[in-house]
Amino acid sequence: MKVTQLILLLVACIGAAAWAYSRPGWDSYVALLGALGALSTATIFWRARRPATGAPKQSQTVACGGIGIQAGRGVTIGGKRDAENE
Kind and range of the H or E element at 23? Predict the structure, then answer.
């Protein structure tokens, strides 16, 4: 998906550059600047969000008859507090 996005933005930059070359004007120059800005921003964010090699993976072992809940963020189970467990 990210590579497809970068390819489409590159095609948009080439198209805007061709338009600015064939019909110079403020509108074609603004389109070229916008396409270049989108391409550079997408490239910067794509490089910044690359997963690190050897990134830790979540794993879990649950005993027989147990229930395992695994989440990446805070999880609340049930809406009421149990008086017996306090």
Answer: none
